[in-house]
User: What shape does this take?
Amino acid sequence: MTQANGHDPWPGIPNGWFAVAWSKDLVPGEVQRMHYFGQELVLFRTRSGVPKVLDAYCAHLGAHLGEGGTVIGECIRCPFHHWHYDGDGTCTNIPYAKKIPPRAKVRAWDVVDRNGMIFVWHHAEGKPPFFDFPVMPEIGHPDWTPPRYFDIEVAVHMQDMAENNCDPVHFKYVHTMDDAPESEIEYGNDGYFMRMISRYATNARWGGVAVNLERDSWGLGLTSVRLKDIPDCGLLLYSSTSPIDQGHTCSRWLFTVTNNLVDTMGEEFIDGMMSGVQADMRIWENKIYRARPVLCEGDSFLGSFRQWAQKFYSETA
Ligand code: FES
Ligand SMILES: [Fe+2]
Assistant: This one.
């Protein structure tokens, strides 16, 4: 997929873990049609509660399993001739045939149900997961508020959204912060994990304090932002950025704060983040992708982000 008017082509679809649904939105027995990574998929939750993702089109005559497919126990049943597929994509039952043809299979995707989201592993060459990501202890903890959920769809390549995390300069010009925050980056987990710590002096309603924002990223699709250094208080924004296709991205945002902050900083933090996204949206939806941007000396983080991002693309992508 190329951009209009001969601009640089979009990067491909990166490899990594990407959220495709909220866990709360998929009860046992439910089936959802999905389009991610430029592909048609079906998501369902088995009766025992395990989410499964398969390629959408039945091996038989190609019906879409997400349009009228039904969960039967641990399987999904095709709406057309009632072939059954288990969560591994193997056909386990054809109600009008004794022998199941060996090629009666559809592709199954690796799925993880964690931190309130259902994640799928995407790899352009079909290789298994090469990194993992942790459980967020704050989500669902009794000392933290029940999560608040937001999602948006943006007409931009997902890498351009992820790049925002490594662009401290734009905080001053887009998000009207006093100054670009002082920041540093470190890497871990064989280089698939990145932490960026930014120091802010806030002048919010709740007082002028110096805080550290810690942004952790596991690949290009998954980020947490934590407010650090205020004793016994905490804020967490957990967000996933998933490629619908090369030019469209679905971003999910989960917020939770410690109960002692709920009436003060909590709403302000959420409002601040969401109005920040509105300001970013106008830029994202109207920008082009520059494969080789002209960078200046104040853009060192952008340069290192672009280098890091390359780890997540297959040659073929
Ligand atoms: S197309 Fe799915 S069972 Fe025939
Ligand atoms: Fe931004």
